[in-house]
Amino acid sequence: MTDPTRAGGADPGAGRDPARDPDRVTADLDVVQPFQLDRSSLRGRLVRLGPALDEILTRHAYPDPVALLLGETITLGAALASALKYEGIFTLQTKGDGPVSFTVADVTSVGDLRGYASFDADRLAAAVAAGAPGTLRDMLGTGYLAFTVDQGEHTERYQGIVELAGDSLDDAVRHYFRQSEQLATGIKVAVGRDSAGRWVGGAILVQALPEEGGARGEAARHSDVEEDDWRRAMVLLGSCTEAELLDARLPVNDLLFRLFHEEGARVYTRHALRAACRCSRGRVATALRSIPRGELEDLKVDGRVAVTCEFCKTEYGFDDAALDAVYAD
């Protein structure tokens, strides 16, 4: 990490009213803010999403329960990815037998976000009509949570899978770390709409630093953490409200100072996030080329084959002339 400063102490906007400072609002959206708690030797990430999350969710016009769940998947995915050292793609995925069968969020090592969800509209409407409270089990039913890191064709892909557990997605993530990684991990996540109706998200992830002499960049096991330090940090994390996580008028460094100033909160260079899909006409053409040309005839509508990206909803159309070019290549 580079450029460390004390949270709240080196903020160039300190002392200004954030509600009257639109530049500060913009600067504190779609960012990951790494930090460290010097007193308790814990590291963390604070994520706040605004336009990027709103673009992804509104593009699909999901019902609110689905948008909330996917928004949490994307926000948590950004927080988890930022705690890793990788060059490629981190994926957080849920799959279940409930009204929402699937959510997925991709986060590239340069901060590009995308995500989508699959759901049964009739089952979802029935669950809402029956007064389902919207817990993880209500939405996803029984299934699993998966973490995947893909760094390219010449590297081994890492994947961790654990059953869905708890009432919320952050419960399921904590369960993953307890069962699969045995890492001391605290998480707080919130997704909602701002006063203008735009989707916003926020998350704080806290994990233990390695012991002296441990592998650099790896988190410590729970047994390595002083119990009193851990409990105190979790109490402070638990005091953070959803409103604080989602309020873009509250700068992220001010929020960290508010929560952890007694822990010696130290912030590092923040990273930007954005909504960006990796689909392209060339990728679609490559996929089509793997299908025998004759089988595409049944897929034509009005004389063309249309392929829509599940992530960004971009449609790529191929008439006979375009298909000739695809198969000629």
From TrEMBL:
Q: Where is the composition biased (Low complexity)?
A: 1-16
Pfam families in the record: HSP33
One Gene Ontology cellular component annotation?
cytoplasm
Keyword Chaperone listed: yes
Q: Protein name, please?
A: Hsp33 protein, putative
Q: Which InterPro entries match?
A: Heat_shock_Hsp33, Heat_shock_Hsp33_C, Heat_shock_Hsp33_N, Hsp33_helix_hairpin_bin_dom_sf
Query: In the UniProt record, does the keyword Chaperone occur?
Result: yes
| Single GO term (MF) | protein folding chaperone
The record's keywords, sorted A to Z, are: Chaperone, Cytoplasm, Disulfide bond, Redox-active center, Zinc
Gene Ontology terms: biological process: protein refolding
The record's region (Disordered) falls at 1-23
The species is: Rhodospirillum centenum (strain ATCC 51521 / SW)
